[in-house]
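1st attempt posting a full record on here, be nice pls
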Amino acid sequence: MKVQSYKVGPAANNLYAVIDDAERECVIVDPGIDSQWVWRQIKTQPYHFKFILNTHAHLDHIYENAFFRRNAGGMLCMHADAAKTLNEIPMQASWFGIDPPAPFEPDGMLMDNEEIPVGEERLKVIHTPGHSPGGVCFVGDDFVIAGDILFAGSVGRTDLPGGDMNALLDSIRKKLLSLPNNYTVYPGHGPSTTIGNERLFNPFLKEIK
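the predicted structure (as tokens):
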């Protein structure tokens, strides 16, 4: 699998396309605000779009769910606890000063340790609450798409509804720091990093190495 990153929207979100070139299959992760241009770019490739996945249900990660579901096809999936917060989307839109997104309903609910097929490969779902109750990460063969739980040199904020710093640090300790040091971390915002770098240098993780 390969991972392509696209920076989108006013919050500089990372949208990810996870691709198996051999089978020409693609999974889209977190189609955020102002990400329709990404679709116009990648639709020229001969890919079959199997899934649209959300790491969590904050507006800047799900804004173009309906657009990608309509145009790319495939199943739209998020964790059940994330789906419970979809009624908060109008409130979240007001924070950004924008209209709410086009309505959508998930096609499926992700579960901890579930495996999502991408061609001959698999993305493993790991439930990582803390930034939001329904937060998940997607683990590939040498990488993890981490949403807003872990960043280069930082961790996700927990002052939004459903945030919990103790739960966030527990998720990082039990789920992410159990991965090998060479695994690339693709966060929801900012540059990529590695598990090893964050284990050594992230000031928020000093107590949980």
